[in-house]
Amino acid sequence: MKKPTAGFKIIASLILAFILIAGGQPLLNHRNFKVEIVCGPGVTEIKKLSDFCQSLKGTEADTPVFILEGQQPGGQVLIMANTHANEPEGMISTLIIIENAVVEKGTLYIIPFFNRSARLNTRPGEGYPLYFSITTPWGMKKFPMGNRDASPLDQWPDPDVYIHYPEKQMLSYLDIRNTNRTWPGRKNGLPMEQVTWAAMELLKHKKVDLAIDLHGAETMYPVTNCIVAPEKAMRIATLASLTVKSMEGFENHVEPSPSSFRGLSHREIGDYSDTLPFLLEAPIPFLDQPTGPKTEKLLLDGRDDFLLNLAKKKKLFVPYDESGWSFDRRVGQHLSVSLEILRQYSKKNADKEIVVKNVPRHADLLKNGAGYFFKDPSEAEENKVIKL
After folding, report:
1. Which pTM was predicted?
2. Which end of the chain has fewer surrounding CB within 10 Å, N or C?
3. How confident is the model over 122-153, as pLDDT tens digits?
């Protein structure tokens, strides 16, 4: 057999290098992409999770905490999004709060990219788009689409079996990169354990009353379109769910936090602190397996013929018709339910009332779209624009 010539080897090497560069450059651009956030009139301070866990400082796991402190004292609330960065509705909801909210009583702590490493990660094996864009009054605003788990570039290798601390429950090896499996975390653990440990330190040191974790789930998954809460937060969750259903007209129910499944925010926050935890699930058709291509269009309009056929056979856990389940609808649901949780808590705890103004609700999102509530960074004061 004739050996390859030197010229052939050079050409083959160049072709391989081109393929690697062409394939890797979009992923590198995605990892370095920055979202511009305009700090609204309510933002009084910005900290980082590393302020509560020094070992996170300088790592890609560290992430900003936006603080909106009212002029009058009241309750303390933490709202987290992008625990799973392939569920972007929560992230958009928190950014709308950051850019618009004014707190009159109490304090909000907002973490829009809780698992920041997952926001830098991708899911190309399932054909996910790297980005999505929404229409604003001043143009298109672009956001990165992340992954469920932290990037192996930031935490590797995975253990053969993940043993949860401190409950010692055996979980999937991938769950060590899932920040909704590592609560309450460990100060000297792996980076994602440090992320949840830092959040627990924030809850304890700031004496936070409520923690709201924004998520999304498949329409074929029974725990969707709901509030998940442990026993001690169940009354407020139930009142919030019933109120938005009767007053705002969208479906929502309550699911109990399982006591035997460890690592979840709605379980461990309640068990290891005085904070009342809530996890909100909005239905995301994009995440369902039996759909068409995972396109930006599917993410935004939530319309899929396969799911429509399944709905007619009563295989879905949410109402579903030709209108789909749009991105604006999901963001609006997160905002309305979050605001209602704050209102119900305030009704029962007058000394810790939380009053937040200028945050749109479900009907506002359906009328105007999520992009309507974003400010143009090019017209904002330079010191008000944060790039994350």
Report:
1. 0.95
2. N
3. 987 788 999 999 999 999 999 999 999 999 99
